[in-house]
Write the structure tokens for this entry.
Amino acid sequence: MRHWLSMMDYDPAELAGLVALARRIKRDAAVGATMSAGHPTAALRGKILGMVFFNPSLRTRASFEAAMLRFGGHAICLNVGGDTWNLEHRDGVVMNGDKAEHVREAAPVLSRYCDALAVRTFAGLKDAAEDAADALIRAFARHATVPLINMESAMEHPCQGLADWMTIDERFGSTRGRRLTLTWAPQAKAVPMAVPHSAALAAAAAGMEVTIAHPPGYELNQAILDKARSWCAAAGANLSVTHDQASACAAADVVYVKSWGSTAFYGKPAEQTESFRRHADWMVDVRHLRRPQAILMHCLPVRRNVVISDAGLDDPRCVVVDQAENRLWTQAAVLSRLLSES
Ligand code: CP
């Protein structure tokens, strides 16, 4: 039994296979050819996905539910602290606070009801080492007895990374050798590094030339950068990091925009907000799309005129809605693979 916790759980060839499968499912669905017994989506038929959210979602929840329903399965959605118990994940604690249930029971119980589980956890944004350990989703993975999917954790959003790869592949016909610039952008409050980590890993696995632009002090996780760099090198490409946003975007085929917080400001929200304000000119606009065929990407949700200008988001080269749609097809591919293997 395999889980899907990280892009790094799979090698680039397997990830490319998932993107190819997602494109096939999308094509077949367009002509109504997905319901035969031999089709990869038959693995979802009659199956139940249990989704556990520790944080809000629009796309992730709706796209997983849509994938399960569309291909004959069903999804159960639980919102921790809302319509289900607050969950503890640390071992050996005295549970006399607000957490009424432990992951040690919750994960195996849900595994008895469901054929696969999916969890969204997010980063605490207080302690970089704690976030890097991704302890909550890893506790679920240890105690689940069915495949577990990462719907965004402290460190990664692999479902988003795969949908982004598929979107670039659709637009350009292939990804290899294309130039992707992942640019930092300001925000209203601190947000995690999960999406930029998965975007960098996906682009590297796809054989793209990757440039990451951010202000000094906004470095991404070193282990993720090392893995992305090694995947780039294996494909004959490079990964570089710069503080010069304009130059990084000038030659880009793909301008991928995402805000993230600095670990230097973890636990210091006022200083983080002030830093975002100081770097307000990093907001992305159409002027950053210098090549005529360049596309503009963001995972959504996006704060207009803080992260990306109205003109940028409303430009025909902006593909954010395609990215969101492709969550459905790539997740159908991941579910098909995990459910047919388990
Ligand atoms: N991109 C993404 O995961 O969107 P949601 O937070 O709305 O699920």
User: Anything to note?
Assistant: The chain has two domains: 7-156+325-341, 160-323. The chain has a mean pLDDT of 96.
